[in-house]
# Entry
Amino acid sequence: MKKSHTAQLILLFIFSSSSAIAETIYKSVDDKGNVSYSNTPPDDSKQASSVTITPPPSEEAIKAAQDRQQRNKEAAMILDENRQNREEQTTKDNQLKHENQKQLQQKRQADESNKNDDYSPYVPRRRPGGIHPPIHRPIRPPVNLPSR
# Structure
């Protein structure tokens, strides 16, 4: 792992230098599997490959990227503020809704208790046509019980 870190550092140094941009960089792998980078082609060209290096961004591109990043940060802050405001408003609305439901429930309970206060016992109504005599049951003949 240490060799690959060294190779990466060498590549970083080569890529970061401005004079290396115009040069061709060659990557080669030896018989033991070690990777090396050079600006001259290796003797064994079968195991070598050319590495293309993209030039670094221009100053205008860097400035444009920084401006985009700043605009994105500002937009994120605005969105975050809007989200917090919506959450606060939702919390207030839920509290008001809960309080209104509580008041409505208390009002319903008070109305129910007032209904019970107005309760009057059942009084049968008189039948039309005046008072009727009671209904008489037919008389049964006496039953003779056996004596003891």
Q: What stands out?
A: The chain has two domains: 2-51, 57-116. The chain is about 50% helix and 10% strand. Residues 57-116 form one domain.
